[in-house]
Each structure stands twice: as C-alpha cells, then as structure tokens.
Amino acid sequence: MSEAKPPSPAIQRIRLRTELRKARTKTGLTQRQVAEKMEWSPSKLIRIEAGEVGITVNDLRPLLAVYEISSQRKVDELLDLARGSRKMPFSEFRDIYSKEFLQFLAMETSASLIRHFNSLQIPGLLQTEEYGRAIMRAYSSGLAQDTLDRYIEARLARQELLQGDEGPEFFFILDESVIRRQVGGRGVMRAQLERLAELAARPRVHILVLPFSAGAHSGMQGPFTLFEFEADEMPDSFYLENPRGDSYASSDSEETGRYVERFWELEDLSIKDDVDVLLRRMAERTGEGSDDLVSLLRSGTASADA
C-alpha cells in the first residue's frame, strides 16, 4: 500500500495561517500587540496571517509561546506545517510574476478540478512554446529576450500538471475564435492545434469548443478560471484577469457559484464530442489556409473576374 501524498505547500500554508489566527484570537491579542511582543513590524504578521509569506521554524517557536501553545503534539504539528509551506510553487519566478498570479499558481497546483473558459487565446497550460512566444511578443513588443525566456520557462513548468495519471481534472472551454486566430502564423497555429488534439484525447483533459453559431453568450464578458479542492480548508474559488493584467480572485461561495453556473451554461452550448478530430481537421485546414478570410475574399474576387 503506497503512502498518502503530503498536502501541497499551498494547502499547508492555509492550514497554518488558519491555526495561527485562531490561536491569536483565543489569546485576545491584536495583531499590533503580537507584533510588538515579537519585535516585528505589524505588516510581517499581517502578511503571515494572510498567507502571503511563510514563516520560519525559528520565528514560529517564540510565536507559539506568545500564543501559550505548550502541547508538544500541537507544536510539532504546526512546525511541520511551517516546514511544508515554505517552498511555494513557482516562488523562483517572483521576479516576473505578481503576488496575485503566484497565488493563482498555488491554487492551480493544489486543485483537484480546474475549469477554464477563454475567448481570447489558448490557455497557458495548453500552449506550445512557439505559440506562447508569439503571444508574449504581441503583448509586450519591448520585452527583453531573457525575460521572455523566463516567462516561457515558467509556462512549460506549469504544464507538468498535465503529465501522468495523477493530478487535477481539467475542463477547458475555448471560443471558436481562439482556435481560428492564427497566432504566430499558419505553421505555429497548426502545431498548436495538433497539440490541443493530442491533449483532448487524454482522460484528465476535457477540451470543448464554443462555436460561433452559439451567438451571444455570458462568456463574452471575459475569461475566467474555477478551482475545486479536496481539502476542507480550501474553499472553491475563481480567478479573473483582464488584458491589462489586473486580476481578481475570490472564494466567496455566492460569487464562485455564479461563475460555476456560467461555466455550465457555456458547456451546454459547446461542442463536446470528437473534439480531437475537429482540432486535427482545423490543423489541416489552417496549414492549407483554406479557411483564411483573406483567401476567401481573394477567391470571391477571382470568381467575379472570371
């Protein structure tokens, strides 16, 4: 019988911050009072309790004394959580990612089920390297080559979630425009569509296509991602990001529920069966240029001149 897989660092950090908040509340101390006793700045404690930063074992021991936690079993439990939560996913990419997006990545690596809708581009988890580079160049024309390489390195590292038999179950809904837009040119887009077709055939990855024939729909308001977690400490959450890079995340049950319902509505409008076959055919036509609007216009002009 195999050993149980330890909780992710993100979940351990949430457990720890919850325990520390409860312990401080039980003592009746304010954050300012605790910070003064620990000779910390108040912002340090605020960030620890918010889960924005971890806490070292050396800092945690005297903090537990302030909270009058003396049970060795409880102390050991909290010290283990501190050790397990120090190495957050993708922390080595703090130089290129915002605090909010690092929290998104922590949720992504901890979730048991991920739902994503996109009407603008192929989601990062599904992008080929060439497609990703083309997107990055389009977003930031002055991006330095070494910074671009860092973004691509991080994106490819994220895609390890798709490998093997274990990991989250994924549901991606892509607007038809996403698979038609020739990002990087025909060759890059053909390879990207072939990659999507290969991924769509995997048991943990479900790719759906929302066709133009669906007409106006709620997804036109923008992309969003939904996370479900097995751990009780992690409430279901959603994440929004606009083209300017502004983001919003929430675990409010009402807000999250509305986005889950929106996803289900889009799912009902989408093509679900034989999507891998559809994507391979799209890849062939993209390579040939037979469904390109410019080609269609030229063919119409040629017919008129005949």
From TrEMBL:
PROSITE patterns: HTH_CROC1 (PS50943). Residues 286-306 are annotated as: Disordered. CDD domains: HTH_XRE. Residues 20-78 form the HTH cro/C1-type domain. This is Helix-turn-helix transcriptional regulator. It comes from Streptomyces siamensis.
